[in-house]
Every structure is written in structure tokens, then in C-alpha cells.
Design a protein that fits this description.
globular, OB fold (Dihydrolipoamide Acetyltransferase, E2P), mainly beta, about 35% strand, 2 helices
Amino acid sequence: MTIIAAADVELDIEGLDPKAARRILARRTTMMRGCDAGEAPGRAVLVWTLGAEQFALPLSDVSVVLKADQTTPVPGAPAALIGLSSRRGRLLNVVDPARALGQGTGAAADGHLLVLKDTRPRLALLVDRAEAVAALAIDDGSDAEGLTTQATLADGGRPLLVNKDRLVEAMGLGGQHKGM
């Protein structure tokens, strides 16, 4: 696994063309540094897909995006827990957010993992594709009260903004599996 980093952005380039990975990283780094003077960008979000639906998580809730790989199933685990994966010597609980988000089927096994910050146990959402870092068009600084809220991006996109804490709660994984 090869990791390249710039500013506060980290990208796992395993399986990507190195030139394409550097372009992606440069674009994400530029977006995170802000816009031209005079612009007041909204909060940065990570836009991702699950099935035909587009979602977003505040960038501050995501530690790193990784290419999904093999997981080890856990007998007797909740339905949302797909299995365990190890990255950089740390265990990740790979979870399927599909049911909690109203999607019928889960993500493709060859999708991306969104490793969430500040979760115990350490959770990684299996999604079809991490698409881009974007800015909300209007950001009043408040978090969604429910599980999801319709958002508008600066580029006009309309993903559902996901509340990380409510998602973890809806999946039934709020700290119940200590030691995983």
C-alpha cells in the first residue's frame, strides 16, 4: 500500500495510476486550502455514493479514504458489521450503512472505505465510491438533527448530508463491540 499526503489530505493510491493519484491529491489539497480571497466557502464535505444515491459527510468526520479490500467476518455480529480489516496494524470494523440510510443493498465489495474519526470501535463505512471533496453552498454551522438532511453544494450538487453520530446509532454500533 502506498500513501501520499499533502497538507491535511491523505490518499491511498493502491491500484491507481500514480499520475492520476497526484492530480486527485493536488485538487483535494487546493480545495481544502480554500477559495480565492473574497469567497466565503461553506463547510468541506466528502461526497460519496451508495447505490444510485449521493451522500456527503463533513470532512471533519472522516479520517482517511481507502480502497476496500478483503474483510474477515465476525460470527454473531450485528447485521451492519461486514467484518474486520487491518490497515497499518490497526483493526477497522467495516460496516454497511445501506440499511440505515434506506438503501436496499450494500456497497460493492470493491468500493471505498471511509474511516470515521472519533468512533469506538474504529469504524469504516463501505461505500460504492468516494467521489470528491466539495464545499456546501450555504453553511450555517449547524449539524443535521436527523440522520440525513438535503444539502446543496457550491457546484449545485444535492447530496444527502449524513450525521455521523446518528448513523452509528442507527446501525446499532455505538460502542457495543469493545475490543474489536
